[in-house]
Amino acid sequence: MTSPASLAPQSVSAPGKVFLAGGYLVLDRKYTALVFGLDARIHCHIEPIRTQSGVYLNEIIVKSPQFREAVWEYGYRLTEGNGGVNVTQLRASHDSSLNRNPFIETALAYALTYISSCAPQYLIQPSSISILASSSYYSNPGKARSSNSQFLDFDVTLEEAHKTGLGSSAALVTSFTAALLTHYLPKDVFDLSQDESLKVLHNLSQASHCAAQGKVGSGFDIASAVYGSCLYRRFSPSLLEGHGEPGSLGFASKLRSLVDGGVEWDTEIQKAAIKMPAGLRLLMCDVDCGSQTPGMVKKVLAWRKERQEDADKIWKALQEGNEALAAELTRLATVEVANGDAGERYGKLREIFKSNRELIRQMSVQSKVPVEPPQQTALLDAVSNVPGVIGGVVPGAGGYDAIVVLIEDKAEVIAELKKLLSGWKVDEDGEDGVKIGKVGILGVREEMVGVRLEEPGLYKEWLTG
Ligand SMILES: Nc1ncnc2c1ncn2[C@@H]1O[C@H](COP(=O)(O)OP(=O)(O)O)[C@@H](O)[C@H]1O
Ligand SMILES: C[C@@](O)(CCOP(=O)(O)OP(=O)(O)O)CC(=O)O
Protein backbone atom coordinates (compact mmCIF):
# COMPACT_ATOMS: atom_id res chain seq x y z
CA MET A 1 0.00 0.00 0.00
CA THR A 2 1.17 3.54 -0.70
CA SER A 3 0.46 6.84 0.99
CA PRO A 4 -0.40 10.28 -0.34
CA ALA A 5 2.71 12.32 -1.07
CA SER A 6 2.70 14.32 2.14
CA LEU A 7 0.95 13.56 5.38
CA ALA A 8 1.46 17.08 6.60
CA PRO A 9 0.33 18.36 10.00
CA GLN A 10 -3.06 20.01 9.62
CA SER A 11 -5.22 22.18 11.86
CA VAL A 12 -8.92 22.83 11.56
CA SER A 13 -11.52 24.59 13.71
CA ALA A 14 -15.32 24.57 13.79
CA PRO A 15 -17.70 26.98 15.55
CA GLY A 16 -20.26 26.54 18.31
CA LYS A 17 -23.86 27.59 17.78
CA VAL A 18 -26.82 29.44 19.17
CA PHE A 19 -30.40 29.16 18.05
CA LEU A 20 -32.08 32.52 17.64
CA ALA A 21 -35.34 30.97 16.48
CA GLY A 22 -36.83 27.61 15.61
CA GLY A 23 -36.06 25.39 18.62
CA TYR A 24 -38.36 22.33 18.60
CA LEU A 25 -39.91 23.37 15.26
CA VAL A 26 -36.71 22.34 13.52
CA LEU A 27 -37.28 18.73 14.54
CA ASP A 28 -39.99 18.64 11.86
CA ARG A 29 -38.98 19.17 8.20
CA LYS A 30 -42.01 21.42 7.74
CA TYR A 31 -40.23 24.15 9.69
CA THR A 32 -36.87 25.91 9.68
CA ALA A 33 -34.50 27.36 12.27
CA LEU A 34 -32.30 30.41 12.43
CA VAL A 35 -28.98 29.28 13.82
CA PHE A 36 -25.92 31.45 14.34
CA GLY A 37 -22.38 30.15 14.47
CA LEU A 38 -20.28 31.63 17.29
CA ASP A 39 -16.70 32.79 17.54
CA ALA A 40 -16.13 30.05 20.15
CA ARG A 41 -14.38 27.28 18.23
CA ILE A 42 -13.04 23.80 18.79
CA HIS A 43 -9.71 23.22 17.09
CA CYS A 44 -8.08 19.92 16.14
CA HIS A 45 -4.44 19.64 15.20
CA ILE A 46 -3.24 16.39 13.62
CA GLU A 47 0.31 15.31 12.93
CA PRO A 48 2.02 12.04 12.08
CA ILE A 49 3.62 10.06 14.89
CA ARG A 50 7.24 9.58 14.01
CA THR A 51 9.05 6.68 15.61
CA GLN A 52 12.84 6.53 15.78
CA SER A 53 12.96 2.85 14.99
CA GLY A 54 10.82 3.27 11.89
CA VAL A 55 8.42 0.66 13.29
CA TYR A 56 4.83 1.84 13.25
CA LEU A 57 2.01 0.50 15.35
CA ASN A 58 -1.50 1.11 14.07
CA GLU A 59 -2.20 3.67 16.71
CA ILE A 60 -3.92 7.04 16.88
CA ILE A 61 -3.48 9.10 20.02
CA VAL A 62 -6.02 11.80 20.87
CA LYS A 63 -5.39 14.38 23.59
CA SER A 64 -7.38 17.24 25.04
CA PRO A 65 -4.52 18.93 26.90
CA GLN A 66 -6.67 21.60 28.57
CA PHE A 67 -8.22 18.87 30.72
CA ARG A 68 -6.86 16.34 33.20
CA GLU A 69 -6.74 12.66 32.25
CA ALA A 70 -7.88 13.48 28.73
CA VAL A 71 -5.82 11.12 26.58
CA TRP A 72 -7.36 8.37 24.49
CA GLU A 73 -5.29 5.84 22.53
CA TYR A 74 -6.84 3.75 19.79
CA GLY A 75 -5.72 0.81 17.74
CA TYR A 76 -7.40 0.45 14.34
CA ARG A 77 -7.76 -2.27 11.74
CA LEU A 78 -9.60 -2.82 8.50
CA THR A 79 -12.28 -5.47 9.04
CA GLU A 80 -13.44 -8.18 6.68
CA GLY A 81 -16.77 -8.23 4.87
CA ASN A 82 -16.50 -4.56 3.91
CA GLY A 83 -17.15 -3.65 7.52
CA GLY A 84 -14.85 -0.62 7.43
CA VAL A 85 -12.34 0.30 10.12
CA ASN A 86 -12.80 -0.90 13.67
CA VAL A 87 -11.17 1.12 16.41
CA THR A 88 -10.33 -0.27 19.84
CA GLN A 89 -9.39 1.89 22.76
CA LEU A 90 -6.08 0.83 24.30
CA ARG A 91 -5.38 0.86 28.02
CA ALA A 92 -2.46 2.95 29.23
CA SER A 93 -1.57 0.07 31.55
CA HIS A 94 -2.99 -3.36 32.22
CA ASP A 95 -4.88 -2.38 35.37
CA SER A 96 -6.01 1.11 34.37
CA SER A 97 -9.66 1.65 33.62
CA LEU A 98 -10.91 2.83 30.25
CA ASN A 99 -11.98 6.43 30.16
CA ARG A 100 -14.10 6.44 27.04
CA ASN A 101 -15.04 9.39 24.88
CA PRO A 102 -17.86 8.19 22.64
CA PHE A 103 -17.75 11.26 20.37
CA ILE A 104 -14.06 10.82 19.58
CA GLU A 105 -14.26 7.04 19.27
CA THR A 106 -17.25 7.07 16.92
CA ALA A 107 -16.01 9.99 14.79
CA LEU A 108 -12.66 8.19 14.43
CA ALA A 109 -14.21 4.88 13.30
CA TYR A 110 -16.54 6.65 10.84
CA ALA A 111 -13.84 8.92 9.38
CA LEU A 112 -11.24 6.12 9.01
CA THR A 113 -13.88 3.91 7.37
CA TYR A 114 -14.74 6.67 4.91
CA ILE A 115 -11.06 7.39 4.18
CA SER A 116 -10.21 3.75 3.57
CA SER A 117 -13.23 3.33 1.30
CA CYS A 118 -12.23 6.34 -0.84
CA ALA A 119 -8.59 5.47 -1.05
CA PRO A 120 -8.09 1.76 -0.33
CA GLN A 121 -4.55 1.99 -1.69
CA TYR A 122 -3.47 4.32 1.14
CA LEU A 123 -2.09 3.04 4.36
CA ILE A 124 -3.52 4.95 7.31
CA GLN A 125 -0.40 5.90 9.19
CA PRO A 126 -0.35 6.55 12.94
CA SER A 127 -1.09 10.06 14.04
CA SER A 128 -1.52 12.22 17.09
CA ILE A 129 -4.47 14.60 17.41
CA SER A 130 -4.76 17.48 19.89
CA ILE A 131 -8.06 19.14 20.72
CA LEU A 132 -8.20 22.76 21.89
CA ALA A 133 -11.44 24.52 22.78
CA SER A 134 -12.22 28.22 23.25
CA SER A 135 -12.74 28.96 26.91
CA SER A 136 -16.39 29.99 26.59
CA TYR A 137 -17.50 26.39 26.07
CA TYR A 138 -16.97 25.86 29.81
CA SER A 139 -17.70 28.08 32.77
CA ASN A 140 -14.82 26.70 34.88
CA PRO A 141 -12.11 29.26 35.60
CA GLY A 142 -8.98 28.54 33.60
CA LYS A 143 -5.36 29.67 33.53
CA ALA A 144 -3.48 30.94 30.47
CA ARG A 145 -0.16 29.23 29.76
CA SER A 146 1.30 32.43 28.38
CA SER A 147 0.22 36.01 27.82
CA ASN A 148 -0.64 35.47 24.15
CA SER A 149 -2.38 32.13 24.53
CA GLN A 150 -6.01 32.03 23.47
CA PHE A 151 -6.65 28.65 25.17
CA LEU A 152 -6.91 28.00 28.89
CA ASP A 153 -5.80 25.20 31.16
CA PHE A 154 -8.90 24.12 33.08
CA ASP A 155 -7.16 21.73 35.46
CA VAL A 156 -10.28 19.54 35.83
CA THR A 157 -11.38 16.39 34.05
CA LEU A 158 -13.92 16.68 31.20
CA GLU A 159 -16.53 15.16 33.52
CA GLU A 160 -15.93 18.01 35.96
CA ALA A 161 -16.17 20.70 33.27
CA HIS A 162 -19.36 22.80 33.32
CA LYS A 163 -20.61 23.15 29.76
CA THR A 164 -22.18 26.45 28.74
CA GLY A 165 -24.27 24.80 26.02
CA LEU A 166 -22.58 26.11 22.90
CA GLY A 167 -22.54 22.68 21.21
CA SER A 168 -19.13 21.30 22.14
CA SER A 169 -19.72 17.78 20.85
CA ALA A 170 -20.87 18.96 17.40
CA ALA A 171 -17.96 21.41 16.99
CA LEU A 172 -15.60 18.68 18.19
CA VAL A 173 -16.92 15.96 15.86
CA THR A 174 -16.87 18.35 12.89
CA SER A 175 -13.35 19.68 13.39
CA PHE A 176 -12.00 16.24 14.34
CA THR A 177 -13.51 14.64 11.23
CA ALA A 178 -12.31 17.51 9.03
CA ALA A 179 -8.78 17.20 10.44
CA LEU A 180 -8.66 13.45 9.69
CA LEU A 181 -10.00 13.84 6.13
CA THR A 182 -7.68 16.76 5.37
CA HIS A 183 -4.68 14.87 6.72
CA TYR A 184 -5.24 11.46 5.15
CA LEU A 185 -6.89 12.28 1.81
CA PRO A 186 -5.10 14.02 -1.06
CA LYS A 187 -6.27 17.56 -1.81
CA ASP A 188 -7.95 16.57 -5.07
CA VAL A 189 -10.18 14.19 -3.07
CA PHE A 190 -10.90 16.36 -0.02
CA ASP A 191 -10.42 20.10 0.19
CA LEU A 192 -12.27 22.30 2.70
CA SER A 193 -12.43 25.16 0.20
CA GLN A 194 -14.68 23.06 -2.08
CA ASP A 195 -18.47 22.78 -1.68
CA GLU A 196 -18.41 19.06 -2.46
CA SER A 197 -15.98 18.43 0.42
CA LEU A 198 -18.15 20.46 2.80
CA LYS A 199 -21.08 18.25 1.85
CA VAL A 200 -19.01 15.12 2.57
CA LEU A 201 -17.92 16.57 5.91
CA HIS A 202 -21.50 17.51 6.79
CA ASN A 203 -22.98 14.11 5.94
CA LEU A 204 -20.21 12.15 7.66
CA SER A 205 -20.27 14.31 10.80
CA GLN A 206 -24.08 14.09 11.05
CA ALA A 207 -23.85 10.31 10.80
CA SER A 208 -21.15 9.88 13.45
CA HIS A 209 -22.56 12.53 15.82
CA CYS A 210 -25.98 10.86 15.78
CA ALA A 211 -24.38 7.44 16.30
CA ALA A 212 -22.35 8.74 19.27
CA GLN A 213 -25.42 10.42 20.81
CA GLY A 214 -27.49 7.31 20.28
CA LYS A 215 -30.29 9.38 18.77
CA VAL A 216 -31.12 11.28 15.61
CA GLY A 217 -31.67 14.94 16.57
CA SER A 218 -32.33 17.74 14.09
CA GLY A 219 -28.63 18.09 13.26
CA PHE A 220 -28.67 21.92 13.42
CA ASP A 221 -25.49 21.93 15.52
CA ILE A 222 -23.43 19.96 12.98
CA ALA A 223 -24.88 22.04 10.12
CA SER A 224 -23.73 25.27 11.77
CA ALA A 225 -20.36 23.77 12.74
CA VAL A 226 -19.77 23.01 9.04
CA TYR A 227 -21.47 25.96 7.33
CA GLY A 228 -21.60 28.64 10.04
CA SER A 229 -24.69 30.81 10.47
CA CYS A 230 -27.60 29.63 8.33
CA LEU A 231 -31.30 29.07 7.91
CA TYR A 232 -31.60 25.34 8.42
CA ARG A 233 -34.12 22.70 7.38
CA ARG A 234 -33.30 19.28 8.71
CA PHE A 235 -32.74 16.00 6.83
CA SER A 236 -35.29 13.17 7.00
CA PRO A 237 -34.33 11.10 10.05
CA SER A 238 -34.81 7.86 8.09
CA LEU A 239 -31.59 8.70 6.20
CA LEU A 240 -29.54 7.76 9.23
CA GLU A 241 -31.27 4.51 10.04
CA GLY A 242 -29.93 1.30 8.68
CA HIS A 243 -26.24 1.84 7.80
CA GLY A 244 -25.21 -0.43 10.65
CA GLU A 245 -22.18 -0.13 12.88
CA PRO A 246 -18.46 -0.08 12.19
CA GLY A 247 -17.36 -3.68 11.63
CA SER A 248 -20.80 -4.91 10.51
CA LEU A 249 -21.22 -6.48 7.09
CA GLY A 250 -21.22 -3.84 4.31
CA PHE A 251 -20.81 -0.86 6.67
CA ALA A 252 -18.06 0.71 4.56
CA SER A 253 -20.02 0.82 1.31
CA LYS A 254 -23.25 1.89 3.03
CA LEU A 255 -21.42 4.75 4.78
CA ARG A 256 -19.66 5.77 1.56
CA SER A 257 -22.93 5.92 -0.32
CA LEU A 258 -24.60 7.86 2.50
CA VAL A 259 -21.77 10.39 2.58
CA ASP A 260 -20.89 10.71 -1.11
CA GLY A 261 -24.34 11.34 -2.55
CA GLY A 262 -25.34 7.77 -3.43
CA VAL A 263 -28.11 8.62 -0.97
CA GLU A 264 -29.91 11.93 -1.61
CA TRP A 265 -29.93 14.22 1.46
CA ASP A 266 -32.89 16.57 1.77
CA THR A 267 -31.19 19.02 4.17
CA GLU A 268 -31.59 22.69 3.19
CA ILE A 269 -28.93 25.12 4.30
CA GLN A 270 -29.40 28.73 3.23
CA LYS A 271 -26.42 30.86 4.11
CA ALA A 272 -27.62 33.94 2.25
CA ALA A 273 -30.92 33.98 4.16
CA ILE A 274 -29.32 35.14 7.38
CA LYS A 275 -27.08 38.09 8.03
CA MET A 276 -26.10 40.30 10.91
CA PRO A 277 -26.64 44.02 10.19
CA ALA A 278 -23.61 46.24 10.70
CA GLY A 279 -23.78 47.83 14.13
CA LEU A 280 -25.59 44.89 15.78
CA ARG A 281 -24.28 41.76 17.48
CA LEU A 282 -25.40 38.80 19.54
CA LEU A 283 -24.45 38.42 23.15
CA MET A 284 -25.02 35.40 25.36
CA CYS A 285 -25.65 35.22 29.07
CA ASP A 286 -24.95 32.14 31.10
CA VAL A 287 -27.38 31.63 33.95
CA ASP A 288 -26.06 29.80 36.96
CA CYS A 289 -28.78 27.35 37.85
CA GLY A 290 -28.60 23.97 39.48
CA SER A 291 -31.66 22.77 37.63
CA GLN A 292 -31.34 20.58 34.55
CA THR A 293 -34.54 19.81 32.74
CA PRO A 294 -34.13 16.50 30.97
CA GLY A 295 -36.82 15.22 28.65
CA MET A 296 -38.01 18.64 27.47
CA VAL A 297 -37.97 17.62 23.82
CA LYS A 298 -39.96 14.45 24.51
CA LYS A 299 -42.55 16.36 26.54
CA VAL A 300 -43.01 19.09 23.92
CA LEU A 301 -43.43 16.48 21.19
CA ALA A 302 -45.93 14.54 23.34
CA TRP A 303 -47.95 17.75 23.84
CA ARG A 304 -47.90 18.38 20.10
CA LYS A 305 -49.21 14.89 19.45
CA GLU A 306 -51.94 15.22 22.02
CA ARG A 307 -53.08 18.71 21.12
CA GLN A 308 -52.14 18.87 17.50
CA GLU A 309 -54.49 21.67 16.52
CA ASP A 310 -53.35 24.06 19.26
CA ALA A 311 -49.73 23.16 18.70
CA ASP A 312 -49.94 23.61 14.93
CA LYS A 313 -51.46 27.05 15.40
CA ILE A 314 -48.58 28.17 17.65
CA TRP A 315 -45.90 26.56 15.47
CA LYS A 316 -47.31 28.11 12.30
CA ALA A 317 -47.22 31.54 13.92
CA LEU A 318 -43.71 30.89 15.28
CA GLN A 319 -42.49 29.83 11.85
CA GLU A 320 -43.84 33.10 10.42
CA GLY A 321 -42.07 34.98 13.21
CA ASN A 322 -38.82 33.13 12.54
CA GLU A 323 -38.99 33.92 8.85
CA ALA A 324 -39.81 37.54 9.62
CA LEU A 325 -36.76 37.73 11.90
CA ALA A 326 -34.44 36.31 9.22
CA ALA A 327 -35.92 38.64 6.59
CA GLU A 328 -35.65 41.76 8.74
CA LEU A 329 -32.05 41.01 9.77
CA THR A 330 -31.15 40.44 6.12
CA ARG A 331 -32.98 43.59 5.01
CA LEU A 332 -31.16 45.71 7.58
CA ALA A 333 -27.86 44.14 6.56
CA THR A 334 -28.25 44.65 2.82
CA VAL A 335 -30.47 47.66 2.20
CA GLU A 336 -29.06 51.10 2.66
CA VAL A 337 -30.95 52.00 5.81
CA ALA A 338 -31.88 55.66 5.92
CA ASN A 339 -30.33 57.58 8.79
CA GLY A 340 -32.80 58.10 11.52
CA ASP A 341 -32.63 57.03 15.07
CA ALA A 342 -31.98 53.49 16.18
CA GLY A 343 -35.40 53.38 17.84
CA GLU A 344 -37.06 53.63 14.44
CA ARG A 345 -34.54 51.51 12.60
CA TYR A 346 -34.90 48.53 14.91
CA GLY A 347 -38.59 48.95 15.78
CA LYS A 348 -39.71 46.05 13.62
CA LEU A 349 -37.03 43.72 15.03
CA ARG A 350 -38.18 44.57 18.56
CA GLU A 351 -41.78 43.71 17.67
CA ILE A 352 -40.73 40.37 16.17
CA PHE A 353 -38.78 39.41 19.31
CA LYS A 354 -41.75 40.32 21.48
CA SER A 355 -44.27 38.32 19.54
CA ASN A 356 -41.97 35.30 19.18
CA ARG A 357 -41.47 35.28 22.94
CA GLU A 358 -45.22 35.52 23.50
CA LEU A 359 -45.69 32.41 21.33
CA ILE A 360 -42.88 30.55 23.12
CA ARG A 361 -44.59 31.32 26.44
CA GLN A 362 -47.87 29.97 25.10
CA MET A 363 -46.03 26.79 24.14
CA SER A 364 -44.50 26.62 27.65
CA VAL A 365 -47.84 27.04 29.40
CA GLN A 366 -49.72 24.60 27.19
CA SER A 367 -47.05 21.90 27.21
CA LYS A 368 -46.08 22.50 30.86
CA VAL A 369 -42.44 22.52 29.76
CA PRO A 370 -40.32 25.43 31.07
CA VAL A 371 -39.14 26.65 27.64
CA GLU A 372 -39.36 30.28 28.78
CA PRO A 373 -40.09 29.86 32.50
CA PRO A 374 -41.13 32.93 34.57
CA GLN A 375 -37.59 33.36 35.94
CA GLN A 376 -36.30 33.78 32.37
CA THR A 377 -39.23 36.03 31.47
CA ALA A 378 -38.20 38.39 34.27
CA LEU A 379 -34.57 38.33 33.12
CA LEU A 380 -35.40 38.81 29.42
CA ASP A 381 -37.82 41.66 30.18
CA ALA A 382 -35.22 43.48 32.28
CA VAL A 383 -32.46 42.96 29.72
CA SER A 384 -34.73 44.09 26.85
CA ASN A 385 -35.34 47.41 28.65
CA VAL A 386 -31.64 48.33 28.67
CA PRO A 387 -31.07 51.07 26.04
CA GLY A 388 -29.43 49.58 22.96
CA VAL A 389 -30.84 46.08 23.50
CA ILE A 390 -33.12 45.05 20.63
CA GLY A 391 -34.48 41.86 22.18
CA GLY A 392 -33.62 38.46 23.56
CA VAL A 393 -34.86 34.88 23.72
CA VAL A 394 -34.14 31.58 25.43
CA PRO A 395 -32.05 29.75 22.84
CA GLY A 396 -32.70 26.25 21.53
CA ALA A 397 -34.64 24.02 23.85
CA GLY A 398 -34.90 26.88 26.37
CA GLY A 399 -34.95 26.20 30.11
CA TYR A 400 -33.15 27.99 32.88
CA ASP A 401 -29.52 28.08 31.83
CA ALA A 402 -28.95 30.72 29.13
CA ILE A 403 -30.37 33.63 27.17
CA VAL A 404 -29.27 35.17 23.88
CA VAL A 405 -29.62 38.89 23.24
CA LEU A 406 -29.41 41.04 20.11
CA ILE A 407 -27.83 44.39 20.93
CA GLU A 408 -26.30 47.47 19.37
CA ASP A 409 -22.59 46.73 19.19
CA LYS A 410 -21.42 49.48 21.57
CA ALA A 411 -19.28 49.30 24.67
CA GLU A 412 -21.80 51.37 26.67
CA VAL A 413 -24.60 48.88 25.98
CA ILE A 414 -22.48 46.01 27.29
CA ALA A 415 -21.45 48.12 30.29
CA GLU A 416 -25.11 48.83 31.14
CA LEU A 417 -25.97 45.14 30.77
CA LYS A 418 -23.10 44.19 33.07
CA LYS A 419 -24.39 46.66 35.64
CA LEU A 420 -27.88 45.20 35.50
CA LEU A 421 -26.66 41.60 35.65
CA SER A 422 -24.13 42.11 38.44
CA GLY A 423 -26.99 42.74 40.83
CA TRP A 424 -29.45 40.37 39.18
CA LYS A 425 -31.63 38.46 41.54
CA VAL A 426 -35.05 36.93 41.17
CA ASP A 427 -36.57 37.50 44.60
CA GLU A 428 -38.94 34.60 44.71
CA ASP A 429 -38.37 31.01 43.76
CA GLY A 430 -40.68 30.29 40.86
CA GLU A 431 -43.76 28.12 41.45
CA ASP A 432 -41.53 25.32 40.23
CA GLY A 433 -39.13 25.94 43.10
CA VAL A 434 -36.24 26.77 40.75
CA LYS A 435 -33.98 29.58 41.83
CA ILE A 436 -31.68 31.09 39.26
CA GLY A 437 -28.35 32.33 40.50
CA LYS A 438 -25.66 34.59 39.07
CA VAL A 439 -26.01 35.67 35.45
CA GLY A 440 -22.75 36.21 33.57
CA ILE A 441 -21.92 37.50 30.12
CA LEU A 442 -20.19 34.92 27.91
CA GLY A 443 -17.34 36.26 25.81
CA VAL A 444 -18.88 35.15 22.50
CA ARG A 445 -20.60 36.72 19.54
CA GLU A 446 -21.96 35.52 16.23
CA GLU A 447 -19.64 34.50 13.44
CA MET A 448 -20.76 33.74 9.91
CA VAL A 449 -17.94 31.34 8.88
CA GLY A 450 -18.12 27.62 9.53
CA VAL A 451 -15.29 25.09 9.52
CA ARG A 452 -11.90 26.44 8.43
CA LEU A 453 -8.22 25.58 8.26
CA GLU A 454 -6.03 27.12 10.93
CA GLU A 455 -2.36 27.93 11.23
CA PRO A 456 -0.66 24.99 13.08
CA GLY A 457 1.61 27.50 14.88
CA LEU A 458 -1.38 28.52 17.05
CA TYR A 459 -0.99 25.51 19.30
CA LYS A 460 2.78 25.35 19.77
CA GLU A 461 2.74 25.46 23.54
CA TRP A 462 0.09 22.72 23.74
CA LEU A 463 1.68 20.10 21.54
CA THR A 464 4.48 18.84 23.71
CA GLY A 465 4.28 16.16 26.34
N1 LIG B 1 -12.59 19.82 24.68
C1 LIG B 1 -13.05 18.55 24.55
N2 LIG B 1 -12.20 17.52 24.41
C2 LIG B 1 -12.64 16.25 24.27
N3 LIG B 1 -13.94 15.92 24.26
C3 LIG B 1 -14.84 16.90 24.41
C4 LIG B 1 -14.45 18.26 24.55
N4 LIG B 1 -15.56 19.01 24.69
C5 LIG B 1 -16.62 18.15 24.61
N5 LIG B 1 -16.19 16.89 24.43
C6 LIG B 1 -17.03 15.67 24.29
O1 LIG B 1 -18.37 16.08 24.09
C7 LIG B 1 -19.19 15.66 25.20
C8 LIG B 1 -20.22 16.74 25.51
O2 LIG B 1 -21.24 16.65 24.59
P1 LIG B 1 -22.75 17.03 24.92
O3 LIG B 1 -23.11 16.47 26.25
O4 LIG B 1 -23.55 16.66 23.71
O5 LIG B 1 -22.65 18.59 25.11
P2 LIG B 1 -22.80 19.76 24.10
O6 LIG B 1 -24.23 20.21 24.26
O7 LIG B 1 -21.81 20.82 24.55
O8 LIG B 1 -22.50 19.22 22.75
C9 LIG B 1 -18.21 15.42 26.33
O9 LIG B 1 -18.70 14.47 27.24
C10 LIG B 1 -16.99 14.87 25.57
O10 LIG B 1 -17.20 13.52 25.22
C1 LIG C 1 -35.03 21.38 20.96
C2 LIG C 1 -34.11 21.31 19.78
O1 LIG C 1 -34.79 21.76 18.63
C3 LIG C 1 -32.93 22.26 19.93
C4 LIG C 1 -32.04 22.04 21.11
O2 LIG C 1 -31.10 23.06 21.09
P1 LIG C 1 -30.10 23.38 22.28
O3 LIG C 1 -29.14 24.40 21.76
O4 LIG C 1 -30.87 23.75 23.49
O5 LIG C 1 -29.50 21.97 22.47
P2 LIG C 1 -28.26 21.13 22.81
O6 LIG C 1 -27.03 21.80 22.31
O7 LIG C 1 -28.56 19.85 22.07
O8 LIG C 1 -28.30 21.01 24.30
C5 LIG C 1 -33.62 19.87 19.58
C6 LIG C 1 -32.92 19.61 18.25
O9 LIG C 1 -33.07 20.42 17.33
O10 LIG C 1 -32.24 18.57 18.11
Automatic annotation (TrEMBL):
InterPro entries: Erg8 (IPR016005), GHMP_kinase_C_dom (IPR013750), GHMP_kinase_C_sf (IPR036554), GHMP_kinase_N_dom (IPR006204), Phosphomevalonate_kinase (IPR035102), Ribosomal_Su5_D2-typ_SF (IPR020568), Ribsml_uS5_D2-typ_fold_subgr (IPR014721)
Keywords: ATP-binding, Kinase, Lipid biosynthesis, Lipid metabolism, Nucleotide-binding, Ribonucleoprotein, Ribosomal protein, Steroid biosynthesis, Steroid metabolism, Sterol biosynthesis, Sterol metabolism, Transferase
Residue ranges occupied by any GHMP kinase N-terminal domain in the UniProt entry: 162-228
Organism: Lophiotrema nucula
Domain of life (superkingdom): Eukaryota
EC numbers: 2.7.4.2
Family the UniProt entry places it in: Belongs to the GHMP kinase family. Mevalonate kinase subfamily.
GO biological process, one term: isopentenyl diphosphate biosynthetic process, mevalonate pathway
Protein name (record): Phosphomevalonate kinase
UniProt-listed PANTHER family: PHOSPHOMEVALONATE KINASE, PTHR31814
Pfam families found in the cross-reference section: GHMP_kinases_C, GHMP_kinases_N
Annotated metabolic or biological route of this protein: Isoprenoid biosynthesis; isopentenyl diphosphate biosynthesis via mevalonate pathway; isopentenyl diphosphate from (R)-mevalonate: step 2/3
GO function terms (MF aspect): ATP binding; phosphomevalonate kinase activity
Transmembrane segments: none
Catalytic activity: (R)-5-phosphomevalonate + ATP = (R)-5-diphosphomevalonate + ADP
GO cellular component, one term: peroxisome
Domain GHMP kinase C-terminal: 354-417
